[in-house]
Amino acid sequence: EKLHLTFSLVQTIDDLFSCPQVAARESLRTVTAPDGRTVKMPGRAFRLEGGPPEASRPWPARPGEHTEEVLREWLGS
User: In degrees rounded to 5, what are phi and psi of residue 50?
Assistant: First the structure.
């Protein structure tokens, strides 16, 4: 502090999963993957008061999952 340096603790992944602050802020969420596995994923990076606590989609789309829908919308077929 005498040298006016900015510093912070660097945590490992294991540290984050057991960190009381991460748990209190609900920064990790448990989701069910499309194959049925249960995994922990990062939650929202920020929250707005009164906003939804979770993303509208619990799991990222698979490559090509929406291709047909998008082409139909864009090409009108």
Answer: 85, -5
The most confident of 28-32, 66-70, 73-77, by mean pLDDT = 66-70
Q: How many domains does the chain have?
A: 1
* In-domain check, residue 22: yes
State the average pLDDT over residues 25-44.
86
Give the residue numbers spanning the domain of 24: 1-44
| Residue 45 banded pLDDT, cuts 50, 70, 90 | confident
24 in a domain, yes or no? Answer: yes
d(CA 49, CA 35): 33
What is the rounded distance in angstroms from the CA atom of residue 28 to the CA atom of residue 67? 30
